[in-house]
TrEMBL record:
Pfam families: MtN3_slv. It is a multi-pass membrane protein. It is found in: Cell membrane. Mediates both low-affinity uptake and efflux of sugar across the membrane. Residues 221-251 are annotated as: Disordered. The chain crosses the membrane at residues 12-35, 47-65, 71-93, 105-125, 131-152, 164-186, 192-213. Belongs to the SWEET sugar transporter family. One of its GO terms (molecular function) is sugar transmembrane transporter activity. GO terms for cellular component: plasma membrane. This is Bidirectional sugar transporter SWEET. The keyword Transmembrane applies. Keywords: Cell membrane, Membrane, Repeat, Sugar transport, Transmembrane, Transmembrane helix, Transport.
Length: 277
């Protein structure tokens, strides 16, 4: 691409970054459709969306301070709108405890922290130093956005289920990090470029986890074994009402187990009573 100037390449990667970032903002739509369908947000967390709203707000402010940053302003304006919408939906359907937790997060991140940063940088920091201070703050929160899915990744490893790890979100995060890394690199804006290295690594890690745990074969085999065992026990109780377990030397009888079927209107359950003899 030697025939393209640095400014042209910057615009291309910035435009691609906008397109991919919109896809990333749309990725949680299935998650929130599930929340809407269930009428409950149980099992989902609001932390990634609270941090993402804070990050988008900071980057929007950074873009306003920076010259020739219309692409940063456009995408982060869209990001603020999406994240605010997701949080509103979450608050509508969240249980009381999660609702209070989310309100605390919004108060801490988006009102106290962001408001304090605005006041400090506008009143106490002047000139080009203001852009540097805000840039460092943006870099820290960009890293926080990348690290926010760690809690979900931990849950995936613990439960061996990818129910709460949408693959589309992970893929969008990875592509988004690539585009904005090159955008920042071409502009020599390392407040944008460096955090996206971490974003790329986290995105790859999430996709690997998804591929590893997307087919929980072990869980299916365990369920099949359990069903087979239940059928075998039921067959034994149908054929014999009692059984005995003898000593290996065949000298004394250790215990007698009596299988008594318990009938109900819905299911036949078995009660096992073992007595020492």
């Amino acid at each position: 691409m030697g025939f393209l100037s640095n400014d042209q390449l910057t615009f291309i990667f910035g435009l691609l970054g906008n397109i991919v970032a919109v896809g990333m903002f749309l990725a949680p739509v299935p998650t929130f459709y599930t929340i809407f369908k269930r009428k409950s947000s149980e099992g989902f967390q609001s932390i990634p969306y609270s941090v993402a709203l804070m990050s988008a707000s900071l980057l929007l402010y950074y873009g306003i301070l920076k010259t020739n940053a219309s692409l940063l302003i456009s995408i982060n304006s869209i990001g603020c709108a999406f994240e605010a919408t997701y949080l509103i939906i979450y608050l509508i359907y969240a249980p009381k405890q999660e609702k209070m937790h989310t309100m605390k997060l919004l108060l801490i991140f988006n009102m106290v922290s962001f408001g304090s940063m605005l006041l400090v940088t506008m009143l106490l920091v002047k000139g080009s130093n203001r852009l540097s201070v805000v840039g460092w703050i943006c870099a820290v929160f960009s890293v926080a956005v990348c690290a926010a899915p760690l809690s979900v990744m931990r849950r995936v490893v613990r439960t061996k289920s990818v129910e709460y790890l949408p693959f589309t979100l992970s893929a969008s995060l990875t592509l988004n990090a690539v585009m904005w890394f090159f955008y920042g690199l071409l502009q020599h804006d390392y407040y944008i470029a460096l955090p996206n290295v971490l974003g790329f690594l986290f995105g790859i890690a999430q996709m690997i986890l998804y591929m590893v745990y997307k087919n929980p074969k072990n869980n299916g085999e365990e369920k099949e074994d359990q069903l087979a065992g239940n059928k075998e026990v039921e067959q034994m109780t149908n054929e014999n009402e009692s059984c005995s377990v003898d000593d290996p030397d065949k000298e004394t009888k250790i215990s007698t187990c009596c299988f008594k079927p318990k009938k109900s209107n819905a299911n036949k359950k078995m009660e096992v009573i073992c007595t020492n003899v």
